[in-house]
């Protein structure tokens, strides 16, 4: 299985978020440019009101520090009244970056202090409330642990399906067949599965490993742009992972699951995901079988299982017919 990957984020990368995701953070640099190569260690933000006032016990200095109206007013008043001790101590900590909200200014003394200490200071026009909510969402996504799989990812009836298997087994061809049947293409060849926190716990989401575009490589044909052939409506940036399917060469000696009474799972990032193994051989319609497997997973979530239903009917029949 792939190794768990943890994201590392440089302060300078915050400035690129607007360019790539169009989140309209509007970040600009006020000072401390020598600190742009520092690394942010996690997605949490901190409002340092107590620390600026001189209380440094439990100071979460490794987090992004957010200066709202209250913090900015306190800093300006402290500088004006020459009460500088707590501010000096604050910038003695190895802080990754400070971000001022509401488009506010900071005293030149603080900017100079940040320059000397190599701590970047950014400014945004957003209010503290909007900025913290938006930045928390962005960072939670950026810092989500993930694994990279050699495979393909497609959305079938809103179920994210990760298709894995040996090279040349027909994964990309199967995805192309599924897109032809009306389902949505997410990723080809390299798939990133990341673990996201939700209000109800965690979930796994799958998407492309890199922004290469909507391309599928088909042996014997070449590169196909899915959007050109099937339209933008058949593309999806990411989908919640609900099923893993492994395509494998048919092996007559292998005992394949024929009834589906026992569910199999694969553990990804600490979460158990339904797992099916589909043998590949001449004459089998693999895209159709993958589609049926996804639909079966939907029905299973709703509490319906064809194999269990048939098993119950057979048992009931045997009870009624005494000859059995």
Write structural notes for this entry.
This protein is of the alpha/beta class. The chain has two domains: 9-142, Udp-n-acetylmuramoylalanyl-d-glutamate--2,6- Diaminopimelate Ligase, Chain: A, domain 1; 148-310, 3-Layer(aba) Sandwich (Rossmann fold), CATH 3.40.50.300. 31% of the residues lie in helices and 29% in strands. It has ten helices and 17 strands. The protein has helices at 17-21, 49-52, 69-80, 85-92, 108-117, 128-142, 171-180, 226-230, 286-301, 306-320, and strands at 9-10, 28-31, 39-40, 45-46, 64-67, 97-100, 120-123, 146-156, 159-165, 184-187, 190-198, 201-208, 215-218, 222-225, 239-249, 265-268, 271-280. The longest helix is centred in the last third of the chain and has 16 residues, at 286-301. The two termini are 47 Å apart. The mean pLDDT is 88.
Please give a handful of descriptors for the protein shown:
single chain, 324 residues, alpha/beta, Udp-n-acetylmuramoylalanyl-d-glutamate--2,6- Diaminopimelate Ligase, Chain: A, domain 1, Rossmann fold, 2 domains, 5-stranded mixed sheet, 5-stranded mixed β-barrel, 10 helices, 31% helix, elongated
List strands and helices in order, with pairings.
Blueprint: E1 9-10, H1 17-21, E2 28-31, E3 39-40, E4 45-46, H2 49-52, E5 64-67, H3 69-80, H4 85-92, E6 97-100, H5 108-117, E7 120-123, H6 128-142, E8 146-156, E9 159-165, H7 171-180, E10 184-187, E11 190-198, E12 201-208, E13 215-218, E14 222-225, H8 226-230, E15 239-249, E16 265-268, E17 271-280, H9 286-301, H10 306-320
Parallel strand pairs: 4-5, 5-6, 6-7, 9-15, 15-17
Antiparallel strand pairs: 1-3, 2-7, 8-9, 8-10, 8-11, 11-12, 12-15, 13-14, 16-17
């Amino acid at each position: 299985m792939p190794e768990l990957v943890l994201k590392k984020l440089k302060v300078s990368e915050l400035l690129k978020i607007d360019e790539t995701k169009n989140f309209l953070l509007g970040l600009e640099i006020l000072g401390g440019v020598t600190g742009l190569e520092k690394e942010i260690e996690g997605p949490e933000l901190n409002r340092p009101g107590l620390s600026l006032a001189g209380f440094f016990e439990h100071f979460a200095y490794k987090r992004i520090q957010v200066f709202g109206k209250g913090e900015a007013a306190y800093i300006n008043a402290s500088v004006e009244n020459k009460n500088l001790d707590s501010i000096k101590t604050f910038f003695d900590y190895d802080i990754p970056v400070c971000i001022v909200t509401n488009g506010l200014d900071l005293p030149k003394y603080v900017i100079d202090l940040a320059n000397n200490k190599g701590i970047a200071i950014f400014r945004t026009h957003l209010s503290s409330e909007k900025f913290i909510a938006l930045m928390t969402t962005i960072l939670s996504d950026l810092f989500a642990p993930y694994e990279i799989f050699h495979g393909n990812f497609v959305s079938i009836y809103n179920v994210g399906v990760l298709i894995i298997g040996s090279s040349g087994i027909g994964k990309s061809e199967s995805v192309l067949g599924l897109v032809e049947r009306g389902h949505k293409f997410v990723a080809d060849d390299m798939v990133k599965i990341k673990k996201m926190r939700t209000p109800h716990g965690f979930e796994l989401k799958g998407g492309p490993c890199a922004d290469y575009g909507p391309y599928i490589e088909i042996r014997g044909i070449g590169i196909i742009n899915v959007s050109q052939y099937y339209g933008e409506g058949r593309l999806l940036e990411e989908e919640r992972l609900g099923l893993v399917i492994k395509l494998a060469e048919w092996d007559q000696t292998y005992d394949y699951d024929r009834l589906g009474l026992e569910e199999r799972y694969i553990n990804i990032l600490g979460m158990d995901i339904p797992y099916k193994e589909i043998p590949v051989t001449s004459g089998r319609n693999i895209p159709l079988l993958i589609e049926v497997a996804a639909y079966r997973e939907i029905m299973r979530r709703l509490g319906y299982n064809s194999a269990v239903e048939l098993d119950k009917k057979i048992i009931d029949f045997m009870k009624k017919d005494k000859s059995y």
